[in-house]
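Deliverable D4.2, example record:
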Amino acid sequence: MPIKPIDMQIMMPRINEMSRIQNEEQQRIQASQQVAAQTTVKQFENNTRQVNSREETHNTAIREKQQNEKRQSNQQDKENNPDKEKTLQQREDNKQKPLGTVIDIRV
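Output generated by the structure prediction step:
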């Protein structure tokens, strides 16, 4: 179907308008995609920081809890077995002595 000159006069201004509208729409889409990508990167960075900080505080709480439990169990052991207290104390003293400071020689 051929295009008549009269139809061509009506179509030409609209072609320019349509191309301008399409370009603007493509730019909007690209801009929104960039913004979405930037927010995703920021959220990812924030999530990694939050996870690390939570793990650190969680580990600290566990350490404190373990220390408290250890202290309580040591106190119960001391109350139950006074001889064990002496042996535990001797073991701790032996651990504190640096190795190699005393030489035992037999002749």
